[in-house]
Amino acid sequence: MTTCAQYETLTSGTCVRDTSFFGGKAVLPEGAGYGIVIGFGLFFSLATAIVMGLDKRYGGTNISSEYFNTAGRNVKTGLTASVIVSQWTWAATLLQSSNVAYQYGVSGPFWYASGATIQVLLFGMLAIQVKRYAPNAHTICEIIDARWGSDVQKVFIFFCFLTNVIVSSMLVLGGAATVNALTGMNTTAAGFLIPIGVIAYTMAGGLKATFLASYIHTAIIFAILITFIYIVYAADTKHGLGSPSKVYDLLQSVAARNVTSADCVARLAAGQNCGAVAKNQKGSYLTMLSEGGVIFGIINIVGNFGTVFVDQSYWQSAIAAKPSSSTKGYLLGGLVWFTIPFALATAMGLATVALDLPVTGDEAGKGLVPPAIATHLMGKGGAAAITIMLFMAIVSTGSAEQIAVSSLFAYDVYRKYIKPNATGEDILRVSRYGVVAFGLFMGILSLILDELGLSLGFVYLMMGIFIGSAVMPISFVLTWDKANAKGAVVGAISGQILGLITWIVTAQGLYKSVTIKTLGENYPMLAGNIVAICSSGIIHAFMSFQDPQNFDFSTLNDRIQLIDDKLPEFEQDEDSNPKQLEAALAWIQKWGLSFTFVMIILWPVLSLPAGCGTSAGCGVFNKGYFNLWVGIALAWGTVATAVIIFLPVYESWDSISVVLKGMFTNDDVHMRMDVLEKKIDALLAPGSEKSAENLSQQPGYRARLIAGHL
Question: Which residues are listed as membrane-spanning (predicted)?
């Protein structure tokens, strides 16, 4: 009896390679999908509600409309960094980054990592400008209104909402496709249940609840991440991996296959990889000289400027952070996030190629490379781990998008145009309605996208064409006094239109037709993305030089109104001193620009001579260089995991200890003494209206007393 190898099927007495990895068969039972989606949704809703309740009881937190949307504006560096990592870890971060490793080799995940890290590093400069010039702000559109007026604000409300819709579409696309492939769970059900799972805790606790849940999500993601990369490079022996050298040898053998052989022709016809990588140096997966990788890198850089600078969730994190934490938090968050695509995607994508798994281009486009290799290496345990990891990424970003949209609606639509005299209670109620409404909308969006047949990869590459034109005007609002209102509107709208025209015309010119397939090719995407962001900046700059506004930034904050709270009083001088804020700006400019230069210029350039003087040849990694590359990834991943899990706990230990001590003591004795004191007062001074609030009736009195905070 003929025995076929793994991923081969006996057909007419001959072993034939499977035409796809999943082949419509789920690895896990359907109930596992519902269990993960519904179970984790309920768990995080319950856990976050308990934590927020304890904070309110023992920490004295009052969830006003300001607190709901700004988290008190005093979030520390570690939690700020954790939140940035959580918000920036989309489904695409885990899925699309491995897809480009599968397509282009090492250059793909490197350009994904560097091309999407620099935006977070550079956004730190805008974050400190918010603290300097607009500490009262709740949203970026409020700042735009205060500087350029309501007409400009309306235009950028559109771009901000569009950004939230695009980011959310990638969440539901990647999430639903992966859960469906691994568990067989209905795609429509997954698309609805995933965003709905985060509504409860986001609606109840607002931004602070989102931050707390994001920390837990990030910790779980990094715990699974470090497990996978060590399995690929150190632990696996059963499947032929287990060391960088073995991965290197397998990749070299895959690239050496003859693409004209019958085997390769059959695989390529099925949409699978086989043989050398087209337009890579010597066809190798181990080179930075990759035309496809570089084009993807440029598209990635342009598109991700839009999804950071135009996404209200990042502005909300900047507003929520302490002034001294805003710059450090964004820098640390960017450097920690870098390891996800750089370490995880390189390991998962290259391992998929090295082990010659029958993953098709269609499966890769849907983001199914990590699920395939996880299932291959760890069976059902790996499938469950990648599903949980993906769910963490989706709900963390999903909750951030929900609270971002609710804030935009509450402050920039409801208070601005519907009820200008809205109270804090009104804002809080509308914010919660907004969370529910956008959560349901995300479910409906999944239906629309499924009907259109768009893939995660397509949406990821096209996003810069639609929102990139808003990047430069938004960057100017807090950094350039000459930037005027008319230039902002004309630049943003014209840039988007020119980007769309370029995209379509390039597809028609190069491929003689305009279809989803031709629009998704590299060159039309590249042209549309570059034209969108560059034309917008040029138009806005030209019009501003012709008619400069010469805006006085010192007047900006007076035009933004707080509703039912005040700005926090910081103990440290660095959090309120204007000179210290200027120093913080200089610090983030130095380090943000330095790391940007290293990541997109210096590092790639230093990789070009790799392999010179060896049998690999110039531009192709030799075994020693690849070992160094993997060593950096492992070290970066290990340090990043430790920092992002332990730093937030270390920084917040005072607050945590107050809650813990409050939970294991009680206030009864002090409250009964107050009752006794009231009765004595009543006896000594009948009819007295002494009604001062008793200290022991204040939230968290006993815990703060024991902790020495009274």
Answer: 32-54, 75-95, 110-128, 155-177, 189-207, 214-235, 292-310, 330-355, 383-409, 430-449, 455-480, 487-511, 523-543, 584-606, 626-647
